Records
---
Amino acid sequence: RFCLLFLLASLPTMAAGEEIAPALQDSWGDFWLFRFFVNAAGYASIVVPGFLLIQYFKRRNYLETGRGICFPVIKSCVFGSEVKSVHQDDGSLPPRAEPTESSTARQVFKLLFCATGLQASYLTWGVLQERVMTRTYGATETDPGEKFKDSQFLVFMNRILAFTVAGLYCALTKQPRHGAPMYKYSFASLSNILSSWCQYEALKYISFPTQVLAKASKVIPVMMMGKLVSRKSYEYWEYLTAALISVGVSMFLLSSAPNRTVSTVTTFSGIVLLAGYIIFDSFTSNWQDALFTYKMSPVQMMFGVNVFSCLFTVGSLLEQGALLESLRFMARHSEFTAHAVLLSVCSACGQLFIFYTINQFGAAVFTIIMTLRQAFAILLSCLIYGHTVTVVGGLGIAVVFMALFLRVYARSRMKKRSKKLPPGETPVQKV
């Protein structure tokens, strides 16, 4: 009933309150809510039989009664070794390498390498993402060209390359003994697919700078959920920075430019899709944190999640007949092929740079680099694609990033202070 009411409520808004580009109004098959349910049905056709099989093997007590050539595969997928770390931190990131006095120049070089790699990977990824989802291919003087509309195929391209890179890395390097049941990766995989799909789809309705600022303001719903559900306590500076972020985002969204085009209008659909991205992405990170209680490396996590991501997306694409259609689009437009491949390469390389940067310099340095990347991404998008930002909107962007840097500084100060606390005291929980 909720889905039906949501659909009925959104249709009049789409029809009357939004200006949608003609390319998005070709048919009901291009309506994002319809595509979402079709994709979800495709995933359910894999999830439901898998769930029934898992329940069947558990009820049969397969660990004691199972034999044969399939026993190791079923044991790994359904049961695992069930060996967890005593402390959650034991199964997360490997110990961070501490710099020595004699290697200062080397550490500076590593930091420049990490910063350059992250900036190049994700700035290129952002530019290509906006190009693929908002521009046409094959346009001539007589032909307006055509847009690529299937966001799920782009998710599949990203995941299959990430799966390949992570698999090769695990095969060529020594990794911890794997203990988690493989099926547990499917939860994070499913939410990761849906969050990525919402991210791509949202660009059909909102501008890229708006999307970046929405990601930056993700801390606000996280704090609200922690307060309402988990009764968490927060420091005064966390409330202050959250308020500054909300003010900055509001200034940007409410500022109006006289020559603002359809592509930069923040629509109802774009807001809903961004909300979906934030919700699914928050679940992904929390579920992955829970999985790290097993002894595993981040690359093993990357491999396990992307195995199921490839399975879900290719299954759904084949059921819809969209895989062959997307491949035919690639065959018609070589430029799109190059963009899609480069998009996947940047996504996979970016994940590896994330793991390496956190391992070498910690989460605070990584957060600073990625916050700068968000600011550069907005600037680059405005320069390349001509998004207009008013003076008020620019001030709003500045307020958001000032608040983000303030959070990083305050958190690092609180972390240092918590190390000096007496043994019986614990610091206030952070987000």
---
Amino acid sequence: MRHTVVTSFLCILLTSQAVLSTEETKEKEKLPKCEHVDPYENLEEWLALKTPAERKCNHTSVREELDENEIKKSEWGIKSFAFDALSSEKLGPLRNVGKQAHKLCEEEKYDASFSTSVVVIHHNEALSTILRMINGLIEFTPKSLLKEIVLYEDASEEEHVLTKHLEKFAKLKGLEDKLIIHRSEYRQGLIRAKVHASRLATGEVIVFMDSHCEVSERWLEPLLQPIKEDPKSIALPVVDLINPVSFDYSSSMVAKSGFDWGLTFKWIYLPWEYFETPENNVKPFNSPAMPGGLLAMKREFFIELGEYDMGMEIWGSENIELSLKAWLCGGRVVVAPCSRVGHVFRMRRPYTSKPGMDTALYNAVRVAKTWLGAYEKNFFAAKPRGLKIVFGDISESIKVRDRLKCKDMKWFIENVYPELEPKVHDEL
């Protein structure tokens, strides 16, 4: 195992460094390595760290320069979280990634003023990433808008339990009234944990956010504006990239989200000519689906839609379910290009699933049986293994569909996502 972890570490590290620009790599190589302060052991000292730029040091893990303890920390992070926890800890408690959105976004005026609850689920998360995210939220969100941050720990394994660390952090920073810290003693899974956590929130708007994100300047205001214009909107930021080894932040391409008949998520990139019209760089645009990890919506609309399907297991397809419910039941999903949030795209998904179950397929079958109607045959043609799935009770979801008098999948294809069903030309 040790050999495998070390080999993987070296391969990924080399790949990561290859992605960096030559000039950036050379600049980093000139700097001494950053001193390592372990936040688990000395939280006060870690919270006092300045940024690597201010300390004039290199926070990335250059293996030849690491001592034995640093190598162990780096390997532990890659094994536990699928990212380099050493680089993250050396990066420190806060950084300003600056203005990542298009320059025209600076001229946009926003007047939406909803009280907002940020809801974060964490299971086996690194302390440094979640604290840097919280610090960023406090620093770069207007105080008048940020009501609270709900931190819901979904039964992390013993060595990764963060509740006491988070409570200590809240006390040190004077944030006891701003942070709602809760722990589930048994594993709910991401989907059910999101629902339970959302019920602790009191803000008018809920922002669901993964536990390894960093917000940029003026990230929230562009998300709230479409919700003011239409309260039944789900607003999405552009998801930027945080490297899992170097933790370098880079802007991603603006895209919308979709899925295929197997209900597998995919990015849909907009043609370059779309952005030649200046206003298209700043105005929200419709998206058939959403990634799931980052979204904003009215709390009452989330409740109206029946929240997430509580019959789903652990992870998978909840983003497609919520997208379909929004579109079919009177709402919409939009991308706000002036909102930018960075996300650590890990090397792999490090969590355990439910033994003996493909939860993503199980959940997708529930979505297909509830929402696809006559088109469910397309799903089972794409995922024939789904025919053998015993998918459980979907009566609550059916009740939501009937109560809200939701439209059918034919309407969705014709009005929202015509690309899902390509036109077939008759043979001559």
